[in-house]
Design a protein that fits this description.
Elements: E1 11-15, H1 19-29, E2 35-39, E3 51-53, E4 59-64, E5 75-78, E6 83-88, E7 97-99, E8 106-110, E9 125-129, H2 132-144, E10 154-157, H3 162-173, E11 180-183
Parallel strand pairs: 1-2, 2-4, 3-5, 4-6, 5-7, 6-8, 8-9, 9-10, 10-11
Helix pairs in contact: 2-3
Amino acid sequence: MVDPNFPVLHSLHLTMADGRVLCGIIDICRKTLENLYMSFHLRTQLPRDYTVTLPRLKRLGLLDIAGFCNKNMPTLVIPSLKYLYLHMNSGAERLPLQMDCGLLTHVRIIGDERIPLSAFRAAKVLQLSASATRFITFLEDLLNNPSVCPALETLEIDRRNERIDELVSTMNNQSGRRIQVSVFSGWWKQALPGSDFCEEGLPCEIERDWRF
């Protein structure tokens, strides 16, 4: 049971094993949360069929690297989301988010390959860890179809092969669309902006970069 006098929160950074507490806290501050970071490193107990709407949430970091919450991950309805960092196990059964991908401006996705990349219509920055096949298809789409991710300025990927290198070179040297493409080399070059979270999970200035 969460204290009903729990303070109003705009930012929340949670790592815990008992998901019932997590859901209780989110319920209390769901109307005010603007920044949420949830990390699951243990097999977490979560209520089944738990759904919550976070109307003001702008920034979300969601990590379930080991797939501990594949079946019972809470569903987050996030209509105003702008910045997304998603690190999911590639075998996860479902993506527990209901959002308008067309509103997102900065996106980092590791592991999950279910969202079509063309859905990120407003994205300025995309940072992706995915299969070589997914990257090749996406780079070809960017080159051949200007309506795919028309706002995109920066693309960072974490795979290389001869075909990817060829496409990256073409993207970086074309005279039309100007998208800077780079290959991840241990640290993302472009930090995700505007988070209240610092590396230790404590509140810090609103303009600090995401360092998840």
